[in-house]
Amino acid sequence: MSLGFSSKLAKNVLGLAPKVATQSLSIVPEKLKMDVLAKLLTLTLSEQIKFGELDFLKGKWVAISVQDIGLHFELSFDGQLLLRSLTKADVTFTANVPELLLVAAAKEDPDTLFFQRKLRIEGDTELGLEVKNLLLGIELEALPQPVRVSIEKLAITLQTLQSYSDGSNTATA
Fold it and tell me: Where is each SCP2 domain found (predicted)?
């Protein structure tokens, strides 16, 4: 397979994936989305919950807006994670899946993405910094194995597709 074909295929996959995810998510009832997200986030943040690291979120709402797949929700903490559809958050984080995935896999720095305008933080700046620091403190190795392996594999796949998409991969397949 030539590099030109690989580049075109990678661009197509990168462009098609968010559309498929958006269509898939659009048929899932909102309550089910919130329930699944709550379970995933509770699993992912179990250590932080256990040690009271989310207590600063009591009475505060953080919105997460994943633009490219149309996923928008707010979360808070009051002894347990609370999730709801968007209403009026204290701070809003907006990005696309690739950026969020690379941050989660510790392959990209959120500050870099912020200055590149690939990550937007709007609202209560102090709360936003606390959330960002909490997320940066999560060790990938400390996550449950299925979550960790999924993040790692997806990040590697994404980086490979991006390298072919922008032509920086000079190998031919």
Answer: 47-135
Measuring CA to CA, which residue among 91, 97, 90, 89 is closest to residue 71? 97
172: confidence class by pLDDT, cuts 50, 70, 90: very low
Instruction: Kindly report, residue by residue over 20-36, the tens digit of the pLDDT.
Output: 877 878 888 888 989 98
What domain range includes position 27? 3-163
Q: 94-124: per-residue pLDDT in tens?
A: 999 999 888 888 888 888 988 999 999 999 9
